[in-house]
Sequence to fold (537 residues):
Amino acid sequence: MLPTLILGSALAGLLAFLAGIFENEDSDAGSASNPNSQVQLAPQIGHLHRYYNKAIAGEPPQNALWATLAATVAYLLIGQLSILGLNSIQSVLIAAIIGSLLAALIQGLYGFLAHVSRVASMKNFKQILYWDSLVSALPLSMTFVFFSALCLTLLAFVIHSLMGSPFSVPLIAMFLGFTLGAIGSSTGDVHYGAERLYQHYKFGSGIAISKQGDIDVKGEYGYRNSVDTPYFTMRFGGPVTGLTFGLLIFIDAVFRIYGGPWTSVILVFASIIIIFIFLVYLEKYTRDKYGPFEEGS
Amino acid sequence: MEPLISMLIIIGGGVLVGVCVHFIPASAVGAMSASTGIATGPSMLSFGAGLAGILSASFALEEGLAVMLASGAGGSALMIILTILGGNLVNAFGTGVPPVSGQTANKLSVLGTSTKDVITGWEQKPYITPGTDGHGMPVQTTVSGIIGGVIGGLGGAMVFYGVYSLFSTFSVEAASLSGMVAAGIFLINCVLPAYTLVGKTEGMFDRKILRTPKTFLSCLIVSTFLALIIYSVSQYSGAV
Fold:
């Protein structure tokens, strides 16, 4: 029993880490979630842009939709696949891939319509619908959704079967999708909204309200598009999102292995205290490193 | 368990869920490092944390109420503090700003005229980017977030347990069914405080915490209705 649980926890942590990275990159490639307001403001202050701008819904419900869709299709397909003579792991993998593919296709459809209609609503501000900015970023965003839905579906199966959750697989996928959406929206997106979109401002400050909408539309070479964005955020914002979600799943899972349920609760609270102490030192470090704002900066 | 006690647990849990949103620091403008708090809407963040708590609590379903509540509280608080960790890491190394409480720096918090962090005593005002309302999650805000996570997790686990004890009499899939219903009740009670918080809060040191009685009352009324509906459904389904 113990090796199964350790394997389950490790696998769950890894899948969660990957899901976190892909989810964040999907939201950054599509300018979804909170930084979306900046991309929408840009044409209103005269910056015509080539960003792919889809915001189908808030990031948590949107991500929960892809995960639940993929997991539900996979759950329904498994029974059919086992009739064909595949063993359980093979049928889970193939079913999850088919489910995630469907989720990616539907995300592509929604994303296409969302981008076109958003640009159409900016007609008064002379924003043009650049087809290249849509067709180059759309497959990229769909790919990220495919991988994130695949990881979440497999994670839901791991939590259901290896870790013994009483919830059904699609429900676990919905829970994980919502939680990951909330985490991705609040960690990795800061790297996109506060740094990538405002790279022409000096590093080391928040974006003042008066500067909002004044986003960077020029790239290293010509106009910037949304394919460049994951290239940048993959280096830091994505891994931090993956780390956050991966740690959440791993800490929650691994402490169930040792002792009774009370032991796991105590260990979880102990890890909260350790993270809190780390946060205090992190705040002190940043205060010492960056220092107070100078007058006139 | 008596149906009445189950209903009271659902109502109590629903109210706790509503109250927890006031404690969890969140602000959508945080995504541009322009406001203190975790960079997303308070309702959705609390919902994400609550679902993590319900998922943790579900593992302890057979162990009794006390363990379930503790597991739920632990799961939610862990999600909140990890999100704060991720957010502060991105703010520190991605954007290059230290965590600062905007309301404390502007003397608008419940602490009155003090511009220092109430726990560490660190001065907030000089570190704030001019033109913003703070950034990141300083220590006092983190503590508020952990308290909020614990309250939310407790509430979510209570709702889940209450619904499960009503549904387990007639359904073999009671755990999944009550997980889904508990998530729905959690969402409803999470969204209600959005009307008093209007998009952002810095947690228990924000003056908006004084509006908690309004949230309490509205969540009480809504949770009572929901508990009655769930009770009716369970009785009707049990009779068939």
